[in-house]
Amino acid sequence: MAVNYIPRRFNIVRDKERCIECGCCVRQCSNECHYFEAGGTTVLADSTNCVACHRCVDLCPTSALRIEKHVCDYRENANWTPQYQQEICRQAASGGTLLSGMGNPKPYPIYWDKILLNASQVTNPSIDPLREPMEIRTILGRKPEKLTVERKGKAITKMPPQVVVETPILFSAMSFGSISLNAQKSLAMAAQNLGTLFNTGEGGLHPDLEPYTDRAIVQVASGRFGVHKDYLNSARIVEIKIGQGAKPGIGGHLPGEKVNVEVSNARMIPEGSDAISPAPHHDIYSIEDLRQLIWSIKQATGNQKPVSVKIAAVHNVAAIVSGCARAGADIIAIDGFRGGTGAAPTRIRDNVGIPIELALAAADSRLREEGIRSQISLIAAGSFRCSADIVKAIALGADACYCASAPLIAMGCHMCQTCNTGKCNWGIATQRPELTKRLNPDIMHERVENLITAWNHEIKEIMGGMGINSVDSLRGNRLMLRGIGLSDRELAILGIKHAGE
Amino acid sequence: MLKEGQVRIPAGCAIAAIIDRKGGLINGSEIIKSIALMHDRSNGLGGGFAAYGIYPEHKDAYAFHIFYDNAEAQKKCEEFLFKHFNVDEAERIPTKKIPAIKNGPDIWRYFARVNRVRMRNARLDEGEYVVQCVTRVNDAYEGAYIFSSGKNMGCFKAVGYPEDVGAFYMLDKYDAYLWTAHGRFPTNTPGWWGGAHPFNVLDWSIVHNGEISSYDANRRYIEQFGYKCTMQTDTEVITYLFDHLMRHHGLPANVAADVLTAPEWDEIDRMSPEKREYFTALRSIYSGALVNGPFSVILGSGKGLLAINDRLKLRSLTAATKGDRAYFASEESAIRIVCPNPDKVWSVSGADPVFVPLEIHQKEES
Amino acid sequence: MKRVYAKEELCLNCRLCEVYCKTAHSASKDVLKANKYETPAPVSRVTVYGDKLRSAAVNCRHCENPKCVQACITGAMTKDPATGIVAVDEHKCIGCMTCLAVCPYGCITTGRFAIKCDLCRGETEPACVKNCPNRALVYTDLGGAQE
Question: CA A199, CA A185: separation in Å to the nearest integer?
Fold first, then answer.
């Protein structure tokens, strides 16, 4: 046997007094950790391949299973931590780039946790959301500079295409290919029932999603997969994907094994071929090229669809956002470096880009300095873990937030970060039919809807506490925020005061 | 302690206004009587009045009312003023020494017309030129503060109860067709005179009661368009919103009022298609100008008076009419003390702004 | 009548329906005791056939004209005219298993007496349906008669 060099990460702990040997775990684990011993009556486990996805734990009818961290100490070294040593061993064995799934897990500052919210006391009243209307309806799309009226009650200005969403929470782009059709369908159904939008990502549009295209954002990415006139015209919004927070500057690579007949049809590429999205759009080498693509899409859609441009949050984000706005983007989505992905080179995911909090604040301030913030919509993306994160993002200046990881968790994701292996036990990040069938859209759309409904309630509760009854008055209202434990520089970039000031 | 502009100070208030729509003159003693009745709504840390039609002999000149902390500030400010304007007249505003008003600044007024050469070189229209000059003085000239800059109108304000402020400025010597008044209850104040209300830009003046919770959303919206909210007060930001919507975007007063107090979506969804389209466009374009939280506002101008209330009716505001006159006040009693038997009395609703146009001006214009 | 229908496209092959069927037909009604410690061990009335790619839980169809009822030599197997449930009277059954021989669906299990699905009599939803993690079993009246 070859030397492994890397100890396993987890132990599957089975309580023998509780195990009824039903074999559910054996049949559920796609990593084949559980097995029946030779006689076929006793279940055993080999923890080597366990990723801690908890499929076996959650389905075990007698709660006989538990996953624990496998502790195998190295000599203490604050520099050469076990993680770096193990990654080196993996590369020494494979010669390849390290790949990971989901967002940046490193302990960089999470500014949401260093920002506190305000509430009304005495000088103005808080509002009870159960008694008073509390509005979170949001309108996305380009706004004219001003309204021209014939008289009170009659507008003359012709509005550019506007998209109304009943919550500032949208589902971020996840392509068919990177996630299963069932997962996409669950999001599409939830988006329709919630009055919000889902995003097809760059994987084209599967025919099963056609009933939901009224709630769809379709992407045009560097691979141009599945892009044709009907695709653009079927959607509510067309999004040009320039970059992704998890892997700024990097294209995409859907391995051929995931390109089954369905994926191949949706993407309009041969079955079994690798779907490679180039790092840049090869027709966008500069801002003026972006402008041409935006106008081409507007022409192809008869000026009926707002065009969004999605960029990764990188160092010069404010200037780039301003450039996009001036290039004709109606909506700009900024994806922070904690944003998720189906697969990204680990080094890129963990080291490139900046936090969404700072990027959003910088971009919003910049657009206001230029006097054009009110004419475009700004969507923030890159890890919103709860409703309070959303409230803080809106107060920093976002119109809406893209969420993907949270709805995936609602559908069963346990952040095992191995989406890239295609063995997702929860039927999300996989195309294997025996796994995708595990995700029943009839169940999962309800869970996603419950989650967003719960967040909507919480957002309204928080707004009510602030004495605000419309999300319009929360947007960019940075006086509602205070920093805690932040430096003057960080406070200045976020445009907020410190707690106590 | 930080003064107004360096820190945001919430405040409660009393407001009152009287207008004669035919342009008939009303003596200052009436508005003082009305606002004085609401003594308990202020705490002696700010009071003020705006009066329209008080300088008919200078009706084509801007009347700048300025507080000076010291002679040095006056010297520098006058240098600026004389360079940018042709000043017809400069004088101390007459005041009466009364025990309740202390430690005041030196208060001057100037009647001035714009320096047209400078204005044209700056490529600005007249209104913009004046606003920028005023902003410049208030922003950059330490110790000088222009608190009134309209034509044929003036603001009078000080630290004190409003009735004392009225006596201090001897407002019973002034007759105006439109008066607004304000008594302030700040929760914290260094007692700076510039912090008292009304707040004024050109001939817009605002008195306001409430603490708006949308303040920073509104401030960051309006600052996109060259305004600078130096006072950090609700009144200032509301004034700028009206000024921007009406002067820059050319919206009529009642449409500007719709922007600030737009109806709720539930209501809009039930409207006729034309109105729905109007309000949806308005809320979409001007979402940053929606004012949220408790407020009642009276906006005075040479064209008339506009009274608005917040969408949830969290602040009181009563209106009444009698003949050609309309009365507004935070409390009905403050109207009845000067107009015991009005023709009509009602509570201003959040959804329904009240606009009282000055008919004499409309005739002149047409 | 309402019957249990299996959706093959959603069946996970987890076989939890079997675990919960046993529990529902146990003395203790406790999932751990029923499946590990109880004697005699309860028997599942539902069986999952297939592999990880394709599988389905099969149980009694509660036929309109049940062959098992016709074949029963003691009158132990009856179809309740009110509910339509086909069930065995354990006191009358002698365990001859003629029913098993004639059942076209293979839904009868041998034991001291014939063992088969009784739709968890009285329950609003049978245990297999209630506990299916993927809603692959549905309890519904699709109309029409089962053979």
Answer: 11
- Cα–Cα distance measured from residue B188 to residue B1, given in angstroms and rounded to the nearest whole number: 10
- Supply A363's token pair: 């971009």
Give yes or no for residue B351 having a pLDDT over 50.
yes
Helix then strand then coil, % of chain C, to nearest 5? 20, 15, 65
pLDDT at residue A83 tops 70: yes
What structural domains and CATH numbers belong to chain B?
11-54+152-365 (3.60.20.10)
Q: Is A409 exposed, middle or buried (0-12, 13-18, 19+ CB in 10 A)?
A: middle
Minimal CA–CA distance to A126: which of A462, A456, A457, A459? A462
Is residue A396 within 8 A of residue A361, CB to CB? The reply is yes
What pLDDT shows up at residue B5? Answer: 60
| Cβ-defined contact of A22 to C18 (cutoff 8 Å) | yes
Task: Say which residue the tokens 């299973």 belong to.
Answer: A65
> B212 falls in which pLDDT band (50, 70, 90)?
confident
ipTM: 0.91
Longest dimension (CA), chain C: 42
Condensed to tens digits (0 to 9), the pLDDT of residues B42-78 reads 888 889 999 999 999 999 999 999 999 999 999 999 9
Strands B199-201 and B62-68: unpaired
The CATH architecture that domain A10-96 belongs to is 2-Layer Sandwich (3.30)
Q: Average the pLDDT over A472-481 and give the result.
A: 97
Euclidean distance between the first and the last CA atom of chain C, given in angstroms as a whole number: 13
Which of A393, A394, A415 has the alpha carbon at shortest distance from A406?
A: A415
Q: Is A443 in a helix, a strand, or coil?
A: helix
Scanning the structure block, which residue is given the tokens 């191995």? A418
Instruction: Tell me what the mean pLDDT of segment B137-155 comes to.
Output: 93
Q: Is the pLDDT of residue C49 over 60?
A: yes
Of A146, A151, A397, the CB nearest to B285: A146
Amino acid at A178: S
Q: How many CB pairs under 8 A join A and C?
A: 55
pLDDT tens digits, A284-306: 999 999 999 999 999 999 999 99
Clarify whether residues C78 and C26 are in a common domain: no
Shortest CA distance from A64: residue in chain C: C32
CA-closest candidate to residue A445, choices A413, A411, A415, A412: A411
Per-residue confidence at A27, pLDDT binned at 50, 70, 90? very high
Give ∠ CA A21-C53-C10 in degrees, rounded to 5: 85
Average pLDDT over residues C119-131: 91
Distance of alpha carbon B198 from the chain centroid? 4
CATH topology of domain A138-498: TIM Barrel (3.20.20)
Smallest CA-to-CA distance from A94 within A274, A273, A422, A346 is with A346
Residue B363, pLDDT > 70, answer no
pLDDT at B11: 59
What CATH number is given to the structural domain containing C65? 3.30.70.20
A97 versus B365: which is more confidently predicted? A97
Q: Which chains touch C (3 or more CB pairs under 8 A)?
A: A
Q: Which residues of A touch C (CB under 8 A)?
A: 18-20, 22-24, 27-28, 59, 61-62, 433-434, 437-438, 440, 442-443
Plot region of A10 (φ>0 → left; ψ -120 to 50 → alpha; else → beta) = beta
